[in-house]
Amino acid sequence: MLNKKITGVFSAVLIFTVLTQTMSILRTTLLAKYFGTSSMMDAFNLANLIMIAIVNIGGASIPVVIIPFLAKIKENRDEDKKEALNSYVITIMMVSLTVLLITYSLGFISMNYFHWKENHLFYYMTYLLTFIMGIGQIFRMYSWLQTSYLEFQGRFIWVKFAGLVAIVLNYLFILFRAPELTIYQVAISVSCSFLIESLLLVWGNRKWDYKFKFKFNFRSTEYRNLLKLTLPSIVGASIYQLTILVPSTLGSYFGVGYVSTMTYANQIMSIFQMLIITNLLSMIYPNLSRSFALSLQTGKEKFVQYIKLFNLIVIPVVVGLIVLGHEIIAILFERGSFGSESSARVFEFLFFLALALPFTVFKEMVFRIFYSIKDTVTPVKIGVISVVFQISFLFLGAFKLGVISLMVSPLITAMFSATLAAFSLYKKVSFRQELWQITKSQAKIIGNALIMGGVIYLFKTFFTLPLILDIITCTVLGMVSYAALIFLTDYRTIKQFLKKNHEEKGRLM
Fold this sequence. Notes:
Blueprint: H1 2-35, H2 39-59, H3 61-76, H4 79-113, H5 116-119, H6 121-152, H7 156-177, H8 183-204, H9 221-251, H10 258-294, H11 296-333, H12 340-372, H13 377-400, H14 404-429, H15 432-462, H16 467-489, H17 491-508
């Protein structure tokens, strides 16, 4: 009965996630139509990234730290713990608000000192948009707090519902008012959508016994322990935000349109990462952890099995994105102010983002191994070294390679991180034989995926269809041809995977 309930909740959450991602893409499509890759859109995207980076550094720790602590409050009904939690929430939100105010102050001083309004209109627009969208991010941080309470209660569906309602209302507003809207009004509408989401989440928590109060005790031992737990999360969040913010900030120096171009390419990739990679990782991680808990050898075998499964799915997706990338970008964005030249530029960034995906998947899988063997330090070390490498590459490449350094940066960094992860894994648990198995399997999968890509390319060359029909036909043709190739060349791997999973289910029952 419990398994059925979990399956039902997971299915509902997945549906809401798909709908939210769809609405997000539709909103981006509208913005691309009316603003294209203009300097206004660049300023909007850069301001959004800056504010997300600042608030996420502190705010990302809220669910990670709060949810385990809520369990203690639930068990003990301890007022001191509630007071410690209030103190912690106040601290995180006040620190983030202080950083925002410092950012606003520095921007205001720079705006007046350098006369941005007259001499640097792009920076002036970015500053104003940063101010507007920063307010929205404060609402978003409060939403994380409310989300933590709801997730602790198991009310995952309401969390997803609130996010979906907010983005649907925002999309409808932009849809009906887009021709008259300025980029500043778009920013205000996005901030308002975060306010709507937070209000819906507060409504969802209205009957819960724990309520946030502006009551604090900064000398509490529990409070100090919460802060200690927050530091690793802040380091990890800072690393991740730097990998997003640095390329986008550099993009603004190469000319108009590059920040927006990267944003559109990342938006397309996020669909596949969210629907395929994130969901698959969340499903296989518990089994991987249990396997390593049984024995190191069992964990190794399970890792090889799962990485083969990931490669079977991810590599043909990469090839499909490259072969059909122009058509996908055209059908999503190519209208109004977003022309064929903008599409070509987005594809250049998408090409390298797609190539980076298998390396990112491998790195994330290796990180799951470290987590499974209770090693949380090694992934942080790899992350820090990778960020230093990426920033160094970008700054040096900007002078030698120009904008090409921005395009290839995700691929180069992903390859570096994956290599570093592989060496760390080899040193930690001696994975030499398993890595050789993965390499042989991957070579076979790449061959099949390239043949699939060739089939799609030949079909596109000899047959001309309407764009949407062309994408659907090529996708189906690619799936059928790839499935046939896998059946002919790798049937044994799939059979072993299905057999092992059937045996595991039998043992659990």
